[in-house]
Amino acid sequence: MESDDGEVVSNKQVIFKDYVPGVLKESDMYITTSTIKLKVPEDCTNGVLVKNLYLSCDPYMRNRMRNFQGSYISPLKPGSPISGRGVAKVLDSRHPDYKKGDFIWGMTGWEEYSLITATETLFKIHDKDVPLSYYIGILGMPGLTAYAGFYEICSPKKGEFVFISAASGAVGQLVGQFAKLLGCYVVGSAGSKDKVDLLKNKFGFDDAFNYKEELDLDAALKRYFPDGIDIYFENVGGKMLDAVVLNMRVRGRISVCGMVSQYNLEQPEGVHNLMHLVPKRIHMEGFLVHDFFHLFPKYLDMVLPYIKQGKIVYVEDIAEGLENAPAALTGLFAGRNIGKQVVAVSHE
């Protein structure tokens, strides 16, 4: 029975146990159930209470499970629900920009219902002709990451040679398609035959290879890029970066989005070939998507028509149910997901 002061309901949550050295395991998280009142408290100015629909599993979340200081994002709090990006429906709001029934994407909790007080991270969803889950993928942070990292950092030109690692993931699959639409030659690496087939047959890459089958990455890159690489979109780091640097062309650009091969290591691997940056005048730049949020409207104007015309496709790997979220997140680091890893909490 709902009254003016809000119904109290049970709220399933994924709790982060404690800081994790080494490899992330499912047991570093656990499921619990608490209760929540479906009303924003009086003293919570600008608060928004939401029902979470889709949650995003992203590699950067692993780094929030360490006890660090001074990064661009704070560590997770042991004993509290995991936080990350999600798509949600507004149930109650004290914020002028959001009203009951609106759909939003932004930072939320890994739980069925969340009270969001840091509303500056939220975006209102206007276009609902596409799957809502896209707002934590192609129409959200990964999409804007691909857009900014490729166009803003790499200044690509038609006919250039583009290499993308972790190419079937949330970001890589889009960078490859953007590069093809621009008229570039595109090769991607991934970790299984299925992913390689996806890159070539679904995403339209010119070629792709399984890095696990290559004994010598330098030789592999020379095979796929006999004339060298103009643009490398870096998602993995380690040995792959070392081999790429040897194969970059003069005035090549490397956009450093992430280094997923390093996140579970106690001691990061060294990169030995960086001296090649000098004679080749290579521009290598790391970036954070937060710096490009002002481009989000411009990005949507570009990408929505492409999606609706079928010129860009997006593959999601959807885990059903909050109880499967820990397995979905740990699976990212074993390469279990094919495409963007999403957890469906509720389909409305």
Automatic annotation (TrEMBL):
Keywords for the protein's UniProt record, in alphabetical order: Oxidoreductase
Gene3D superfamilies: Medium-chain alcohol dehydrogenases, catalytic domain
A GO molecular-function descriptor: oxidoreductase activity, acting on the CH-CH group of donors, NAD or NADP as acceptor
One Pfam family named in its UniProt record: ADH_N_2
SUPFAM superfamilies the record matches: GroES-like (SSF50129)
Record InterPro entries: ADH_N_2 (IPR041694), GroES-like_sf (IPR011032), MDR_fam (IPR045010)
Keyword Transcription recorded: no
Record's signal peptide: none
Protein name: Oxidoreductase N-terminal domain-containing protein
Provenance organism: Populus trichocarpa
